[in-house]
Amino acid sequence: MLTDTHCHLAAAEFAADRGELVAAARAAGVSRIVVPAVERANFAEVRDCCTRYAGCAPAYGIHPLCVAQADETQLADLRDWIAQSAAGPQRVVAVGEIGLDFFIAEPDVERQEHFFVEQLKIARDAQLPVLLHVRRAVDRVLRNLRRIRVPGGIAHAFNGSRQQADEFIGLGFKLGFGGSLTFRGSRRIRELAAALPLASIVLETDAPDMPPAWLGGSRNTPAQLSGIARMLAELRGIDVADLAMATSVNAGVVLPRLRSLD
What is the pTM assigned to this prediction? Predict the structure, then answer.
């Protein structure tokens, strides 16, 4: 059993063959997929995707790269959407994808941080974990997490230091690893993924983005999680079945509502 803790299955890139991709993922051993929203405009698409395909669970949030088009009414909408999605077979499992991104040219730091903080408050009030985008902004994300305590979550596509990893773990977070660790040049990521406590790691694809090395830059899919798991198992020197089970258990620990899909 594998759990993809971060897959944009509702993205337009999957519109033509979404059903086939879900079937292929299941055939590859992926039994649960967390589908995060990125903006208010795709909340309904994420919900409908998770309703249609068994084993999929929604998360709702406003991505840091989408805050330029967002406003305060969308934060109110998010709060309402979270409240309305608290029960039922497709209830929300996390607030996300939220966070900070300082990799882009001339980021609007103040605006990104405002929306991040307000969404952390929504997660805190709803007692939900968060799915974090932390690109080139790990320390700033951690600073806000220390101020506004949420019930853990996942640092998606983690690429920080061991010290930063330990800080996330201490705050109740798991660290997401995906296609980046399949590249031989990604030494720091590979070393971290091999050395961190297994209980702190979850797997993800971030499909359709972050394709593993063997795809040569083409569209990523949730079925690729099995190959990512095999590579991580090799790096850690353990059986891939043991790694798959452990990381799926970890996903259920940090995203408790995910366990209702089992």
Answer: 0.98
